[in-house]
Amino acid sequence: MKSQKAPTVYLDSHATTPVDQDVLNSMLPFFTQKFANGNHRAGWETAAALEAARNQVAAYLGARPSEITFTSGATESINLALLGLASSNPQNRRHIITQRTEHSAVLRCIEALVRRGYHITMLEVDSVGRIDLNQLEEAITEDTLAVAIMLSNNEIGTVQPVRQIGEISRKWGAKFFCDLTQGLGWHPVDVDSLHIDLAALSAHKVYGPRGVGALFSRRKGEKVLLNPICFGGSQERGLRPGTSNIPGAVGFGKALEIMTDTASSYFKSIKEMRDQLQDHLFSTLDGIQLNGCPINRHPGNLNISIPGVSGEDLIGSLPNLIFSTGSACTSGSAKPSHVLSALGTNPSLLNKAFRFGIGKYNTLEEIDYVGNIIVEKVQALQTRRQKMVPT
Fold first, then answer.
1. Could you tell me the CATH number of the domain that includes residue 273?
2. Which residue among the candidates 178, 230, 293, 329 is catalytic per the annotation?
């Protein structure tokens, strides 16, 4: 009798998500039927679809359509926000504030700005990854151009006090840039009430297609002035020139429309699955450690370290489980996670961490299976390692 093949379970939704079938269906006509690009009837039809998608993204953020610029993804949006803001910056503001656990795309942009003469305040985080608002208050001055703090961390899921950060930034006339990418869909976002001036987002984190994202830049009240960082045509008001990705934008708009209708129900079920897996592992395995905030956290995030078992060892022994030892953007790097290092994680546990990203297509039955098989493999790996240690 053939042994039954172990089921494949995808638990890396923080890296990327599958495209929702309704999203795919909305995109397909724009590949083969409504594909025109020009000043004629067929081109006007695709242009109208682009603007409809812009309206959907804007509605989700509580923004105006004119405040949405479509990009190739969050990384481009981040570069356009920070470098574009700096290039249009009045010379009296040469200071930027960020945090040590920010996404590498933000940190690399800030490194580039340092080379252009900007000075940076890098806020520390506490042991669960949250900034201290008092430290922000002490750091910000009339010289501060921007405060760049993300909504939800891509590795540990920790959610920052975004509203208060926006209030402090606005009080000093600094622009608040918030990378919404990982928290999009799972935390209420209204750019006005959160005092966000610039925001980056990406479709593939919310069951939309890869290769499309958006930048929100405020045009109401204290308008944000941005200069383009690449040049060409007049698309996206000249801020992001180049042929528009119509199918991608349509898919992004549809994905956010679906999230608007279903996020509350998915939020509850995803958090339930995350808590079930966490309770199972923590009640069974000795020395296990949670990385991140136990309260203010993405509902599908579980980042843990287990003594004596590296994430790589566990991935190697469980090829049917798809999860991550870090963020997708740094998966090719041998360096320890800068996020976990900033939390003060014990150095011996830095390469032991791994991340589960639970999504809307996971089930409680899968989570039960995952909990059981991980406990089994961890205990086997720990026993094997103990036998290898000389007495």
1. 3.90.1150.10
2. 329
